[in-house]
Amino acid sequence: MRTVTYREAVREGLQEALRRDERVFLMGEDVCMYGGTFAVTKGFVDEFGEERIRDTPLSESGFVGAGIGAAMGGMRPIVEVMTVNFSFLALDQIVNTAASLLHMSGGQFNVPVVIRMATGAGRQLAAQHSLSLEGWYAHIPGLKIVVPATMEDARGMLWAALEDPDPVLIFEHAGLYNIKGELAEVPRPVDIQKAAVRRPGKDVTLITSGIHVHTCLEAADALANEGIDAEVIDLRVLRPLDEEAFLASVRKTKRAVIVDDGWKSGGISAEISARITESAFYSLDAPIGRVCRVEVPMPYAAHLEQAALPQVKDVIASVRAQFGEENV
Amino acid sequence: MYEFKMPTLGADMTEGTLVEWRVEPGDHIERGEVICEVETNKGNIEVEVWETGSVEELLIGPGDQVPVGEVIARLTTRDEKAAVEAAPAQQAAQQAAQQAAELPQVQTPPPEEPSQETPEPDSTPEKRVTPAARKSAHELGVELAGIIGTGPQGAITSQDVDRAAAALEVKPAKAPQEHARRISPIARRMAQSHGLDVDKIEGHGPHGAVLRADVEPLISKSLEFEEEAGKEKDRKDALREAIAIAMARSKREIPHYYLQETFEVSQALRFLETYNRDRPPSERLLATVLWVKAVAEAVKKVPEMNGYFVESRFDRRDEVHVGVAISLRGGGVITPALLDVHKKELPEIMEDLRDLVTRARRGKLRASEMMDATITVTSLGDLGVETVFGVIYPPQVAILGIGKIVERPWAEGGLLGVRPMMTVTLSADHRVSDGIAGSRFLVAIKNYLDSLLIAEES
After folding, report:
1. Which residue of A has its CA nearest to B154?
2. Active-site residue, A129 included
3. CB contact under 8 A, A282 and B149
């Protein structure tokens, strides 16, 4: 075991993939000469050359479409869309082309493209650069949506995504790049199907993904001091949802709080809540709780931004409410 | 908030189709008012509401078919309205009083009149029970009524139930709750007629009383259970099946005893003739009305014949609702009730009967008419049958059978004459009454019929 940053883990995953399979190449804005907006691909060009580490024009629709074409042509492209905020320009390619072609070709054409994007707020980038829309993409049949939260997933999910015959979108929360964690020396294969229990507990289930796995683990530690033993479920994959994982947990704990960096209305938290109600209703001992971002365009001012995002204290308050302590 | 559910209008009914609403959201409704018309396999039935209040929301539309027990409208009851409206008014009054004390020169406004605004749905003081708690209580057989909730907003959680269950095992079992259990008569009757255990039903009425609204969903549940999946039956089959269920249950559970007497009815017929002679057809009386009235008079003397047998005991009723068998044109028989016969005179009963027959054949009966009969009269005389041994319609305890009026030789005072004779039979529940009471009942009927002419002529 060694301690690395999330950035380093992502970087290692990319390097391993590029070394392992010649069909793999990376393209996106500033990935080559500049080394990536989040410095993930710094120095890659020296090892892999400009053929495989390709800078693109500021044209999301164009280069995502090129990636889809390359994938259909037998390559294994990794397309980096700098952040989810810019992916709207490529929405037609992602939703109408990548997600639909297998179906529309009667099962003849898979689109094995991998699209990476940074997501999330918290760095005072205001309304247009702070979105968390992974839950939005999880609405689309034909896509797989993965959200690595740990070092191991940051490194390993990429290879699993490349092996998948269908389009996979990987969402890396920009606030995670600098956090540190332990990573095994030798990479272990990871799946992109199952949710994971990051902390077992018996009193309440915290269902989350991405950066808020860490928010929830911190909240769970604080709650343990109050005698509340919280189980933290890292969804890992938002589509298809590993329903059985969180249903089994909720059936055990009888309480659920969903923590999502997106908005509540029509969001993934609503979907998870609905599935619990559909399939574990008679196990519930409290109304399902949700901690999500406040439904406003993200404010620029730091204190307002923090107030608009799910915080550890919000998770704790929501859990307390599950135990009838809303007024404590 | 009161949830108005698709009522069950007979043992066989599992779903109903809304024909029309007679009210709109915001309308004031009186207890007993017809609020909608529902089509069942017995025809169209007008459904009354049992609370006074107002209509909040109509949840289904005409043509919608929903299972029995499904919420079809939300109503606000008068009590809730009053409670909700009183609170702010009281507060305002208190504030005003306080202000007055502090600033004597300020003129205090009078307490506001209760406004007519609809209360927030959230303001209903409702006992909260989580789904897990409800399930666990059911499994453990724990009464939710006495448990104090520790969950969100005071909800009873499964842990509260577990604690209560544990406490129950330590303590000696309490005295049986049978007598402490509050349950409305109609709920008791419905539960009984569907074989539900009253102690297991959770009540939401005042002091935890079990109300009709609490029983109905359970009935629909038990019916769902019994229902043969996916089979569409036509109306006739369904009606036949309803009769089959009720009659089989009657013969299985009710120990019938039968008494037969032959009445000489010349008095009654003469009375009818006299009464009808100078009246237009619309005001003339049918003989059935006499039998119905005779029953109402006779149960005053022999009350053991009037009421319901539920939960192993007789629930004697003061009001007399006489069920009359009405044959339908499409086949089958229904026995809706003439309501409150004890308060009515012959012309009024006749009017009711005409109305009831018309509506029964048009399929426009009301729920109370389908549910509330306290005793039944069946007459096959028109068809030429001389003697009818009726089968008691549960949970009633008696049925009177009227045979055909035939002329027979009759000896009286040593002389032989030809007189109109009618065979009257009584089928009664031996758990409630004995042959002696039954005999007294028949005598009372005869006495009434014999008294008719004198009463009307004087």
Report:
1. A324
2. yes
3. no
Measure the CA–CA gap between B294 and B1, rounded to whole angstroms.
43
Phi, psi of A206 (to 5 degrees): -100, 120
Q: How do the pLDDT tens digits run along chain B, 458 residues long?
A: 778 888 877 656 777 888 888 888 888 888 888 888 888 776 778 888 877 888 888 888 888 888 888 888 888 876 655 555 444 444 544 554 454 444 444 444 444 444 444 444 444 456 788 999 988 888 888 888 878 888 888 888 988 888 888 877 644 344 444 445 677 767 777 777 777 777 777 777 766 777 777 777 777 655 554 444 344 345 667 777 778 888 888 998 999 999 999 998 988 898 888 888 888 888 888 888 999 999 999 999 999 999 999 888 899 999 999 999 887 776 677 888 999 999 999 999 999 999 888 888 777 788 778 878 999 999 877 778 888 899 999 889 999 999 999 999 988 888 999 999 999 999 999 999 999 999 999 999 999 998 887 555 44
- CA dist A50 and A59 (Å) reads 19
Q: Decide if B403 contacts B265 (C-beta within 8 A).
A: no
Contact A286 B151 (CB under 8 A): yes
Alpha helices in B130-234 (DSSP H): 131-140, 158-170, 185-193, 212-226
Q: Which of B188, B219, B218 is nearest to B9 (CA)?
A: B219
- Option in A285, A321, A324 nearest B132 (CB): A285
Q: What is the pTM of this model?
A: 0.51
Q: Which of A8, A29, A129, A152 is catalytic?
A: A129
Give the Å distances, CA to CA, from B311 to A271, B211, B294, B305, B315.
47, 16, 29, 17, 9
Give yes or no for A326 touching B (CB within 8 A): yes
